[in-house]
Amino acid sequence: MSSKSARSKAPAYRCAECGWTTVKWVGRCGECQAWGTVEETGQVAARTTAAATVARPARRIAEVDATSAAFQATGVGELDRVLGGGLVPGAVILLAGEPGVGKSTLLLDVAARVASAGRDVLYVTGEESAAQVKLRAERIGAVADSLYLAAETDLGIALGHIEQVDPALLVVDSVQTLSSAAVEGAAGGVTQVREVAASLINAAKNRNMATVLVGHVTKDGSIAGPRLLEHLVDVVCQFDGERHSRLRLVRAVKNRYGPTDEVGCFDLTEAGIEGLADPSGLFISPTSTPVSGTCITVTLEGRRPLVAEVQALLAETSNAQPRRATSGLDSSRVAMMMAVLQRRAAMSLHKDDSYVATVGGVKLSEPATDLATVLAIASAKNNKPLQARMIAFGEVGLAGEVRPVPGINRRILEAERLGFQYAIVPASPNGAGQIPPGFRVKEVQTVAEALDLLFAGPSRSGLRSAG
User: pTM for the complete prediction?
Assistant: First the structure.
Protein backbone atom coordinates (compact mmCIF):
# COMPACT_ATOMS: atom_id res chain seq x y z
CA MET A 1 0.00 0.00 0.00
CA SER A 2 1.40 3.40 -0.97
CA SER A 3 1.97 6.23 1.52
CA LYS A 4 -0.63 8.32 -0.32
CA SER A 5 -3.36 5.71 0.18
CA ALA A 6 -2.35 5.28 3.82
CA ARG A 7 -2.75 9.01 4.45
CA SER A 8 -6.14 9.01 2.72
CA LYS A 9 -7.42 6.29 5.07
CA ALA A 10 -6.11 7.86 8.29
CA PRO A 11 -8.87 8.88 10.70
CA ALA A 12 -9.67 12.53 9.88
CA TYR A 13 -12.90 12.95 11.87
CA ARG A 14 -13.38 12.67 15.63
CA CYS A 15 -16.46 12.72 17.91
CA ALA A 16 -16.32 15.64 20.33
CA GLU A 17 -18.30 13.64 22.90
CA CYS A 18 -16.46 10.31 23.18
CA GLY A 19 -13.39 10.61 20.89
CA TRP A 20 -14.53 7.99 18.34
CA THR A 21 -12.70 8.42 14.99
CA THR A 22 -13.67 7.70 11.41
CA VAL A 23 -12.18 8.27 7.94
CA LYS A 24 -15.24 10.12 6.64
CA TRP A 25 -17.80 12.49 8.07
CA VAL A 26 -21.04 11.07 9.46
CA GLY A 27 -23.95 12.84 11.11
CA ARG A 28 -24.17 10.42 14.03
CA CYS A 29 -21.36 9.04 16.14
CA GLY A 30 -20.97 5.30 15.76
CA GLU A 31 -19.91 4.88 19.41
CA CYS A 32 -22.07 7.15 21.62
CA GLN A 33 -24.86 7.67 19.02
CA ALA A 34 -24.78 11.47 19.50
CA TRP A 35 -25.89 13.64 16.58
CA GLY A 36 -23.78 16.47 15.14
CA THR A 37 -20.65 15.80 17.21
CA VAL A 38 -18.33 14.39 14.52
CA GLU A 39 -15.86 17.04 13.37
CA GLU A 40 -12.79 17.18 11.17
CA THR A 41 -9.55 16.95 13.11
CA GLY A 42 -6.92 17.27 10.37
CA GLN A 43 -3.63 15.41 10.19
CA VAL A 44 -1.09 15.69 13.01
CA ALA A 45 2.42 16.01 11.63
CA ALA A 46 4.45 15.44 14.80
CA ARG A 47 4.17 14.75 18.50
CA THR A 48 4.41 17.55 21.07
CA THR A 49 7.88 17.79 22.57
CA ALA A 50 8.82 18.86 26.09
CA ALA A 51 9.29 22.59 26.69
CA ALA A 52 12.82 23.88 27.07
CA THR A 53 12.03 25.79 30.25
CA VAL A 54 9.28 25.41 32.85
CA ALA A 55 7.83 28.65 34.21
CA ARG A 56 6.26 27.08 37.31
CA PRO A 57 8.20 24.06 38.54
CA ALA A 58 6.42 21.24 40.33
CA ARG A 59 6.31 21.50 44.12
CA ARG A 60 5.97 18.97 46.89
CA ILE A 61 2.36 18.64 47.97
CA ALA A 62 3.31 19.57 51.56
CA GLU A 63 4.64 22.91 50.30
CA VAL A 64 1.43 23.91 48.50
CA ASP A 65 -0.55 26.65 50.27
CA ALA A 66 -4.20 25.53 50.37
CA THR A 67 -5.50 28.67 52.12
CA SER A 68 -6.00 30.40 48.77
CA ALA A 69 -8.57 27.72 47.85
CA ALA A 70 -10.66 28.09 51.00
CA PHE A 71 -14.43 28.34 50.72
CA GLN A 72 -15.91 31.84 50.53
CA ALA A 73 -19.58 32.12 51.49
CA THR A 74 -21.96 33.52 48.88
CA GLY A 75 -24.48 34.85 51.39
CA VAL A 76 -27.10 32.36 50.14
CA GLY A 77 -27.10 29.57 52.71
CA GLU A 78 -28.90 26.98 50.58
CA LEU A 79 -26.46 27.41 47.70
CA ASP A 80 -23.48 27.21 50.08
CA ARG A 81 -24.97 23.98 51.41
CA VAL A 82 -24.99 22.44 47.92
CA LEU A 83 -21.51 23.68 47.01
CA GLY A 84 -20.02 22.33 50.23
CA GLY A 85 -19.42 25.68 51.97
CA GLY A 86 -19.36 28.37 49.29
CA LEU A 87 -17.34 29.42 46.27
CA VAL A 88 -13.76 28.26 45.87
CA PRO A 89 -11.45 30.82 44.19
CA GLY A 90 -10.58 29.56 40.73
CA ALA A 91 -13.43 27.05 40.66
CA VAL A 92 -15.73 26.88 37.64
CA ILE A 93 -19.38 26.01 38.34
CA LEU A 94 -21.93 25.02 35.70
CA LEU A 95 -25.56 25.70 36.65
CA ALA A 96 -28.08 24.14 34.26
CA GLY A 97 -31.86 24.20 34.25
CA GLU A 98 -34.97 24.68 32.14
CA PRO A 99 -35.98 28.14 30.86
CA GLY A 100 -37.79 30.25 33.45
CA VAL A 101 -36.80 28.11 36.43
CA GLY A 102 -34.93 31.00 38.09
CA LYS A 103 -31.23 30.51 37.21
CA SER A 104 -30.58 34.15 36.31
CA THR A 105 -32.53 35.43 39.33
CA LEU A 106 -30.55 33.25 41.73
CA LEU A 107 -27.16 34.14 40.25
CA LEU A 108 -27.97 37.85 40.15
CA ASP A 109 -28.83 37.66 43.84
CA VAL A 110 -25.58 35.80 44.56
CA ALA A 111 -23.58 38.34 42.52
CA ALA A 112 -25.11 41.25 44.47
CA ARG A 113 -24.41 39.59 47.84
CA VAL A 114 -20.78 38.91 46.94
CA ALA A 115 -20.39 42.49 45.66
CA SER A 116 -21.94 43.86 48.85
CA ALA A 117 -19.19 42.07 50.79
CA GLY A 118 -16.59 44.28 49.10
CA ARG A 119 -15.50 42.07 46.20
CA ASP A 120 -15.75 43.00 42.52
CA VAL A 121 -18.21 40.92 40.49
CA LEU A 122 -18.63 40.86 36.70
CA TYR A 123 -21.99 39.69 35.31
CA VAL A 124 -21.78 38.95 31.58
CA THR A 125 -25.17 38.46 29.93
CA GLY A 126 -25.67 37.35 26.37
CA GLU A 127 -29.44 36.94 26.60
CA GLU A 128 -30.51 40.35 27.94
CA SER A 129 -29.39 43.96 27.73
CA ALA A 130 -27.73 45.65 30.70
CA ALA A 131 -30.88 47.74 31.22
CA GLN A 132 -33.06 44.61 31.45
CA VAL A 133 -30.73 43.07 34.01
CA LYS A 134 -30.78 46.34 35.98
CA LEU A 135 -34.61 46.29 36.08
CA ARG A 136 -34.63 42.76 37.48
CA ALA A 137 -31.90 43.64 39.96
CA GLU A 138 -33.96 46.56 41.27
CA ARG A 139 -37.03 44.35 41.56
CA ILE A 140 -35.27 41.72 43.69
CA GLY A 141 -33.04 44.18 45.57
CA ALA A 142 -29.78 43.03 43.99
CA VAL A 143 -28.03 46.35 43.33
CA ALA A 144 -24.46 46.83 44.58
CA ASP A 145 -21.69 49.28 43.73
CA SER A 146 -19.12 46.56 43.03
CA LEU A 147 -21.40 44.68 40.60
CA TYR A 148 -20.46 45.29 36.96
CA LEU A 149 -22.75 44.41 34.02
CA ALA A 150 -21.67 43.63 30.47
CA ALA A 151 -24.08 42.64 27.69
CA GLU A 152 -21.79 40.79 25.27
CA THR A 153 -21.94 37.79 22.97
CA ASP A 154 -18.35 37.98 21.70
CA LEU A 155 -15.88 35.93 23.72
CA GLY A 156 -12.94 38.20 22.94
CA ILE A 157 -14.75 41.29 24.24
CA ALA A 158 -15.91 39.38 27.33
CA LEU A 159 -12.29 38.40 28.07
CA GLY A 160 -11.37 42.09 27.66
CA HIS A 161 -13.97 43.01 30.30
CA ILE A 162 -12.38 40.44 32.61
CA GLU A 163 -8.97 42.09 32.07
CA GLN A 164 -10.36 45.53 32.96
CA VAL A 165 -12.53 44.63 35.97
CA ASP A 166 -10.37 41.80 37.39
CA PRO A 167 -13.35 40.39 39.32
CA ALA A 168 -13.34 37.95 42.22
CA LEU A 169 -16.50 36.36 40.79
CA LEU A 170 -17.54 36.02 37.15
CA VAL A 171 -21.09 35.06 36.12
CA VAL A 172 -21.71 34.17 32.45
CA ASP A 173 -25.37 33.94 31.40
CA SER A 174 -25.15 31.85 29.38
CA VAL A 175 -22.23 29.86 27.98
CA GLN A 176 -24.25 28.93 24.87
CA THR A 177 -24.71 32.60 23.84
CA LEU A 178 -21.00 33.46 23.68
CA SER A 179 -19.02 32.80 20.50
CA SER A 180 -15.44 33.24 19.38
CA ALA A 181 -14.50 34.84 16.05
CA ALA A 182 -11.46 32.57 15.88
CA VAL A 183 -13.58 29.42 15.67
CA GLU A 184 -16.07 28.44 12.99
CA GLY A 185 -19.66 27.61 13.82
CA ALA A 186 -22.69 29.29 15.30
CA ALA A 187 -23.02 30.21 18.98
CA GLY A 188 -24.16 27.20 21.00
CA GLY A 189 -22.54 24.69 18.65
CA VAL A 190 -20.23 21.98 19.86
CA THR A 191 -17.05 23.72 18.64
CA GLN A 192 -18.05 27.13 19.98
CA VAL A 193 -19.12 25.87 23.40
CA ARG A 194 -15.87 23.94 23.76
CA GLU A 195 -13.78 27.00 22.86
CA VAL A 196 -15.78 29.36 25.10
CA ALA A 197 -15.61 27.00 28.06
CA ALA A 198 -11.88 26.35 27.63
CA SER A 199 -11.09 30.09 27.43
CA LEU A 200 -13.18 30.97 30.48
CA ILE A 201 -11.78 28.09 32.51
CA ASN A 202 -8.24 29.13 31.60
CA ALA A 203 -8.98 32.70 32.72
CA ALA A 204 -10.54 31.46 35.97
CA LYS A 205 -7.54 29.29 36.87
CA ASN A 206 -4.92 31.91 35.97
CA ARG A 207 -6.69 34.70 37.90
CA ASN A 208 -7.91 32.56 40.80
CA MET A 209 -11.39 33.83 39.91
CA ALA A 210 -14.55 31.94 40.87
CA THR A 211 -16.71 31.49 37.76
CA VAL A 212 -20.34 30.46 37.37
CA LEU A 213 -21.55 29.43 33.91
CA VAL A 214 -25.25 29.17 33.11
CA GLY A 215 -26.03 26.25 30.81
CA HIS A 216 -29.07 25.48 28.73
CA VAL A 217 -30.73 22.06 28.74
CA THR A 218 -32.23 19.99 25.95
CA LYS A 219 -35.83 18.83 25.81
CA ASP A 220 -34.92 15.63 27.67
CA GLY A 221 -33.35 17.60 30.54
CA SER A 222 -29.67 16.96 29.78
CA ILE A 223 -27.14 19.79 29.52
CA ALA A 224 -26.85 21.15 25.99
CA GLY A 225 -23.48 21.12 24.25
CA PRO A 226 -20.61 18.63 24.31
CA ARG A 227 -20.22 16.26 27.23
CA LEU A 228 -16.70 17.61 27.51
CA LEU A 229 -18.17 20.73 29.13
CA GLU A 230 -19.25 18.78 32.21
CA HIS A 231 -15.82 17.14 32.47
CA LEU A 232 -13.91 20.43 32.30
CA VAL A 233 -15.79 22.31 35.02
CA ASP A 234 -15.32 21.66 38.72
CA VAL A 235 -18.97 21.65 39.83
CA VAL A 236 -22.15 20.78 37.93
CA CYS A 237 -25.45 21.85 39.52
CA GLN A 238 -28.94 21.05 38.29
CA PHE A 239 -31.74 23.56 38.92
CA ASP A 240 -35.16 21.86 39.01
CA GLY A 241 -38.68 23.06 39.64
CA GLU A 242 -42.25 22.83 38.40
CA ARG A 243 -43.39 25.81 36.33
CA HIS A 244 -46.58 26.17 38.41
CA SER A 245 -44.87 25.70 41.77
CA ARG A 246 -42.79 28.13 43.80
CA LEU A 247 -40.42 25.44 45.04
CA ARG A 248 -37.00 25.18 43.36
CA LEU A 249 -34.35 22.54 44.09
CA VAL A 250 -30.63 22.78 43.34
CA ARG A 251 -28.67 19.53 43.24
CA ALA A 252 -24.93 19.03 42.78
CA VAL A 253 -24.40 16.37 40.12
CA LYS A 254 -20.62 16.75 40.26
CA ASN A 255 -18.57 18.48 42.94
CA ARG A 256 -14.80 18.35 43.29
CA TYR A 257 -14.89 20.29 46.57
CA GLY A 258 -17.83 18.82 48.46
CA PRO A 259 -20.61 16.23 48.61
CA THR A 260 -22.98 15.46 45.75
CA ASP A 261 -25.89 14.34 47.91
CA GLU A 262 -26.94 17.76 49.24
CA VAL A 263 -30.02 19.60 48.02
CA GLY A 264 -30.79 23.31 48.30
CA CYS A 265 -34.43 24.43 48.52
CA PHE A 266 -35.58 27.83 47.28
CA ASP A 267 -38.84 29.74 47.14
CA LEU A 268 -39.29 31.72 43.89
CA THR A 269 -41.58 34.75 44.31
CA GLU A 270 -42.16 38.06 42.56
CA ALA A 271 -39.71 39.71 44.96
CA GLY A 272 -36.91 37.29 44.05
CA ILE A 273 -35.70 33.95 45.28
CA GLU A 274 -35.16 32.98 48.91
CA GLY A 275 -33.61 29.95 50.52
CA LEU A 276 -35.83 27.60 52.50
CA ALA A 277 -34.02 26.13 55.48
CA ASP A 278 -37.15 24.18 56.50
CA PRO A 279 -39.40 23.57 53.45
CA SER A 280 -41.41 20.66 54.91
CA GLY A 281 -44.38 22.88 55.76
CA LEU A 282 -45.00 23.55 52.07
CA PHE A 283 -45.92 19.92 51.40
CA ILE A 284 -48.52 19.30 54.11
CA SER A 285 -52.18 20.35 54.06
CA PRO A 286 -53.10 22.76 56.90
CA THR A 287 -56.16 20.69 57.91
CA SER A 288 -56.77 20.34 61.65
CA THR A 289 -58.80 17.10 61.40
CA PRO A 290 -57.71 13.87 59.68
CA VAL A 291 -59.23 13.25 56.23
CA SER A 292 -59.55 9.89 54.51
CA GLY A 293 -57.20 9.29 51.60
CA THR A 294 -54.21 11.18 53.03
CA CYS A 295 -50.94 9.88 54.42
CA ILE A 296 -47.80 11.71 55.51
CA THR A 297 -44.39 10.37 54.51
CA VAL A 298 -40.75 11.40 54.88
CA THR A 299 -38.58 11.40 51.77
CA LEU A 300 -34.85 12.01 51.51
CA GLU A 301 -33.66 14.64 49.02
CA GLY A 302 -29.95 14.01 49.14
CA ARG A 303 -29.22 13.92 52.86
CA ARG A 304 -32.13 16.23 53.74
CA PRO A 305 -35.35 14.65 55.04
CA LEU A 306 -38.53 16.32 53.77
CA VAL A 307 -42.00 15.63 55.15
CA ALA A 308 -44.60 15.44 52.39
CA GLU A 309 -48.23 14.41 52.04
CA VAL A 310 -49.71 11.91 49.60
CA GLN A 311 -53.42 12.28 48.79
CA ALA A 312 -55.66 9.73 47.08
CA LEU A 313 -59.24 9.95 45.89
CA LEU A 314 -61.29 7.02 44.55
CA ALA A 315 -64.58 7.50 42.71
CA GLU A 316 -66.74 4.64 41.45
CA THR A 317 -67.14 4.60 37.69
CA SER A 318 -69.18 2.67 35.14
CA ASN A 319 -66.50 2.93 32.45
CA ALA A 320 -64.81 -0.25 31.34
CA GLN A 321 -61.43 1.43 31.72
CA PRO A 322 -61.18 3.36 35.00
CA ARG A 323 -59.14 6.54 34.96
CA ARG A 324 -55.71 6.58 36.62
CA ALA A 325 -54.44 10.14 37.20
CA THR A 326 -51.32 11.10 39.14
CA SER A 327 -49.55 14.36 40.01
CA GLY A 328 -46.13 14.57 41.65
CA LEU A 329 -45.73 10.77 41.66
CA ASP A 330 -44.55 8.28 39.08
CA SER A 331 -47.69 7.01 37.35
CA SER A 332 -46.14 3.59 36.71
CA ARG A 333 -45.20 3.29 40.37
CA VAL A 334 -48.72 4.19 41.50
CA ALA A 335 -50.18 1.62 39.10
CA MET A 336 -47.89 -1.01 40.63
CA MET A 337 -49.05 -0.12 44.14
CA MET A 338 -52.69 -0.47 43.09
CA ALA A 339 -51.92 -3.86 41.58
CA VAL A 340 -50.26 -4.94 44.84
CA LEU A 341 -53.36 -3.86 46.79
CA GLN A 342 -55.65 -5.83 44.49
CA ARG A 343 -53.54 -8.98 44.41
CA ARG A 344 -51.91 -9.09 47.88
CA ALA A 345 -54.59 -7.37 49.97
CA ALA A 346 -57.75 -8.49 48.10
CA MET A 347 -58.83 -4.87 47.60
CA SER A 348 -61.16 -4.37 44.63
CA LEU A 349 -60.10 -1.26 42.69
CA HIS A 350 -61.06 -2.15 39.13
CA LYS A 351 -64.34 -0.20 39.30
CA ASP A 352 -62.86 3.01 40.73
CA ASP A 353 -61.30 6.03 39.09
CA SER A 354 -58.18 6.90 41.06
CA TYR A 355 -56.54 10.29 41.57
CA VAL A 356 -53.24 10.28 43.49
CA ALA A 357 -51.27 13.49 44.05
CA THR A 358 -48.81 15.26 46.31
CA VAL A 359 -49.29 18.58 48.09
CA GLY A 360 -47.39 21.73 47.16
CA GLY A 361 -46.17 20.53 43.76
CA VAL A 362 -43.36 18.41 45.20
CA LYS A 363 -42.15 15.43 43.15
CA LEU A 364 -41.73 12.18 45.07
CA SER A 365 -39.64 9.70 43.10
CA GLU A 366 -38.04 7.81 45.99
CA PRO A 367 -39.30 4.20 46.44
CA ALA A 368 -39.60 4.92 50.18
CA THR A 369 -42.90 6.71 49.46
CA ASP A 370 -44.53 3.45 48.30
CA LEU A 371 -46.00 2.58 51.69
CA ALA A 372 -47.56 6.04 52.09
CA THR A 373 -49.11 5.72 48.63
CA VAL A 374 -50.55 2.31 49.49
CA LEU A 375 -51.99 3.52 52.79
CA ALA A 376 -53.47 6.65 51.22
CA ILE A 377 -55.26 4.56 48.56
CA ALA A 378 -56.46 2.08 51.18
CA SER A 379 -57.72 4.92 53.37
CA ALA A 380 -59.64 6.38 50.45
CA LYS A 381 -61.13 2.98 49.60
CA ASN A 382 -62.24 2.37 53.20
CA ASN A 383 -63.29 6.01 53.63
CA LYS A 384 -61.48 5.94 56.97
CA PRO A 385 -58.84 8.49 58.00
CA LEU A 386 -55.50 7.26 59.19
CA GLN A 387 -54.35 7.85 62.74
CA ALA A 388 -53.58 11.49 63.49
CA ARG A 389 -49.93 12.64 63.70
CA MET A 390 -48.73 9.49 61.93
CA ILE A 391 -46.16 9.00 59.19
CA ALA A 392 -45.36 5.99 57.01
CA PHE A 393 -42.49 5.15 54.70
CA GLY A 394 -41.04 2.05 53.10
CA GLU A 395 -40.50 0.46 49.71
CA VAL A 396 -43.22 -1.98 48.62
CA GLY A 397 -42.37 -4.96 46.42
CA LEU A 398 -44.63 -6.80 44.01
CA ALA A 399 -44.86 -9.70 46.46
CA GLY A 400 -46.43 -7.35 49.00
CA GLU A 401 -43.35 -7.14 51.21
CA VAL A 402 -42.23 -3.85 52.78
CA ARG A 403 -38.51 -3.43 52.23
CA PRO A 404 -36.08 -1.40 54.36
CA VAL A 405 -35.00 2.02 53.15
CA PRO A 406 -31.91 4.09 54.08
CA GLY A 407 -32.04 6.72 56.79
CA ILE A 408 -34.88 5.28 58.90
CA ASN A 409 -33.71 6.98 62.09
CA ARG A 410 -33.10 10.29 60.29
CA ARG A 411 -36.65 10.27 58.95
CA ILE A 412 -38.08 9.49 62.39
CA LEU A 413 -36.13 12.34 63.99
CA GLU A 414 -37.41 14.79 61.36
CA ALA A 415 -41.00 13.65 61.90
CA GLU A 416 -40.66 13.97 65.66
CA ARG A 417 -39.23 17.48 65.25
CA LEU A 418 -42.35 18.52 63.34
CA GLY A 419 -44.71 17.16 66.00
CA PHE A 420 -45.58 13.70 64.69
CA GLN A 421 -45.98 10.93 67.26
CA TYR A 422 -46.38 7.62 65.39
CA ALA A 423 -44.59 5.91 62.50
CA ILE A 424 -45.17 2.83 60.37
CA VAL A 425 -41.77 1.74 59.09
CA PRO A 426 -40.31 -1.36 57.40
CA ALA A 427 -38.72 -4.04 59.56
CA SER A 428 -34.95 -3.69 59.38
CA PRO A 429 -32.14 -5.92 60.69
CA ASN A 430 -30.65 -2.87 62.40
CA GLY A 431 -34.00 -1.68 63.74
CA ALA A 432 -35.25 1.88 63.75
CA GLY A 433 -32.34 3.16 65.81
CA GLN A 434 -32.75 5.43 68.78
CA ILE A 435 -36.38 6.49 69.09
CA PRO A 436 -37.15 9.91 70.60
CA PRO A 437 -39.02 9.89 73.93
CA GLY A 438 -42.78 9.76 73.47
CA PHE A 439 -42.50 8.68 69.83
CA ARG A 440 -43.94 5.27 68.93
CA VAL A 441 -42.90 3.06 66.03
CA LYS A 442 -44.43 -0.05 64.47
CA GLU A 443 -42.32 -2.18 62.16
CA VAL A 444 -44.17 -4.10 59.45
CA GLN A 445 -42.96 -6.71 56.99
CA THR A 446 -45.88 -6.82 54.54
CA VAL A 447 -48.58 -4.54 53.18
CA ALA A 448 -51.25 -6.81 54.66
CA GLU A 449 -49.70 -6.38 58.11
CA ALA A 450 -49.78 -2.59 57.76
CA LEU A 451 -53.41 -2.62 56.61
CA ASP A 452 -54.46 -4.91 59.50
CA LEU A 453 -52.73 -2.60 61.92
CA LEU A 454 -54.51 0.54 60.69
CA PHE A 455 -57.93 -0.70 59.61
CA ALA A 456 -58.61 -3.66 61.91
CA GLY A 457 -58.82 -1.60 65.11
CA PRO A 458 -55.50 -2.51 66.79
CA SER A 459 -54.73 -1.28 70.25
CA ARG A 460 -52.11 1.35 70.84
CA SER A 461 -50.04 -1.21 72.67
CA GLY A 462 -49.03 -2.54 69.26
CA LEU A 463 -46.89 0.55 68.79
CA ARG A 464 -43.38 0.34 70.25
CA SER A 465 -42.37 3.39 72.26
CA ALA A 466 -39.04 4.67 73.42
CA GLY A 467 -37.96 3.27 76.70
Answer: 0.77
